[in-house]
Amino acid sequence: MAQIKVPVVRNILQANDRLASENRNRFDEAGIFVVNLMSSPGAGKTSLLEKTIDALAARMGIAVIEGDLQSSCDAERIQKKGVQAVQINTDGGCHLDGNMIQIALDSLDLSQVDLLIIENVGNLVCPAEFNLGEHEKITMLSVAEGDDKPIKYPLIFQICSVLLVNKIDLLPYTDCDVAKIRQTSKQLNPAGKVFEISCRTGEGFGPWLSWIEEKVGEHRKIRAGAAVPPQADSH
Amino acid sequence: MAQIKVPVVRNILQANDRLASENRNRFDEAGIFVVNLMSSPGAGKTSLLEKTIDALAARMGIAVIEGDLQSSCDAERIQKKGVQAVQINTDGGCHLDGNMIQIALDSLDLSQVDLLIIENVGNLVCPAEFNLGEHEKITMLSVAEGDDKPIKYPLIFQICSVLLVNKIDLLPYTDCDVAKIRQTSKQLNPAGKVFEISCRTGEGFGPWLSWIEEKVGEHRKIRAGAAVPPQADSH
């Protein structure tokens, strides 16, 4: 009997990684620093963007890609801040992927951008598995979610460069122990940074903004390096 | 050339629905009322179970199936309450499905159970798409997540029988407008009930507990009806 090989995409994550890598090349050619911001629903991602844009938009070009199941309320909030914003609607899908970002990039003028923030779908599970081409993953946790989250959802705390512990203004009214969050996330991710913030009051924003500015500076240097005239390479 | 038909599971949700329907038959034969409890991470599902067990365990047999990525902390919390508890670890999977419940049921003595609560993985997206065989879906939302969640994650608010708005003790310290949650969830789901509660203070538990007791009573009657001796059917 004839043997027919059925072509199968054996690893959907592998296919995604290829697209993510293409995105990364595009970001690096443009010298843009790109972060993938992930959290549970309602941890405060969009509020973080609003406050970060307010603080930094005068000093750098900022663009935002918003991932949501079907609404456009978040992108509308961001557009009011006067920066470029694109809304991706996943049509019920639980995470962004490399392909969606590739399509969204066509709607942005990257030549005006130093910092691109991708706000993922609110979900502490699925987004952790899909690279988008970002340079750094940021995980955000609201203290109202409780201090057991790193133990219960370890992957997303393990892979992030920065953990933002948000809504610290609510600490007096919850049983959340931030020391426990720091300890358990450090076990998963010894090199990760932790910043405690309140998007409501602005408390703790200094170190977060400094980290962003430092990273943007590094990526501007990459762009400056790439801008060496072609004849420099021709002998 | 020989044509070979490759069997393909075309609709994974259809396959799941078959298993869910088998589970439902098993619940109905045993006269057990079964709920599927869904929410974002940290909305308060396990705290709800603890308080509900404290209030009702003297009056009915309660069992819990806990869904988590890999830890067993929630099932341990429930076992301390002296009721049957089974932990399902999804190994990173973002939702429970009918097959996982079928396997978990083999670890429970259903003859002692009137109420089975299935605590799904903390995720406001994926669990909404998978029936487990439950009689009612319960969605829980913490006021700390914000009042835009029904607009942003509509499916899980559309399909639930009951929406539990939890952590109302935090209302004075947030910008959350519960009237907006009621209004937008009612548009999605006109027949759904909404209970405002605080698992921390116990506020608002009366209507929730009454609803559970009423439903358990209805399902006990189904069991009593099914107990008609077999000879009644033999002529």
Give an account of the 3D structure.
- Two copies of one chain form a homodimer.
- Chain A is α/β, with parallel strands linked by helices and 235 residues long.
- Chain A has a single domain, classed as Rossmann fold (3-Layer(aba) Sandwich).
- Helix content of chain A is 37%, strand content 17%.
- Chain A has a seven-stranded parallel beta sheet, sandwiched between helices.
- In chain A, helix 3 links the parallel strand 2 (62-68) and strand 3.
- The longest helix of chain A is centred in the last third of the chain and has 22 residues, at 205-226.
- Chain A is globular.
- Chain A binds chain B through residues 1-2, 4, 6, 40-43, 68-71, 73-74, 92, 94, 121-126, 129, 142, 144-146, 148-149, 151-155, 167, 169-170, 173-175, 200, and chain B through 1-2, 4, 6, 40-43, 68-71, 73-74, 92, 94, 121-126, 129, 142, 144-146, 148-149, 151-155, 167, 169-170, 173-175, 200.
Element layout with pairings:
2 copies of one chain form a homodimer.
Chain A lengths: L11 H19 L2 E7 L5 H12 L5 E7 L4 H7 L4 E6 L8 H8 L9 E5 L16 E7 L6 H4 L1 H5 L3 E5 L11 H11 L4 E4 L8 H22 L9
Parallel strand pairs in A: 1-4, 1-5, 2-3, 2-4, 5-6, 6-7
Helix pairs in contact in A: 1-4
Highlighted features:
homodimer; 235 residues; alpha/beta; Rossmann fold; seven-stranded parallel β-sheet; globular; disordered C terminus
For this structure, the CATH topology of chain A is Rossmann fold
Please identify the oligomeric state: homodimer
**Could you estimate the helical fraction of the residues of chain A in percent?**
25-40%
- Strand proportion of chain A, as a percent range, falls in 15-25%
Number of helices of chain A: 8
Largest interface: which pair? A-B, 41 and 41 residues
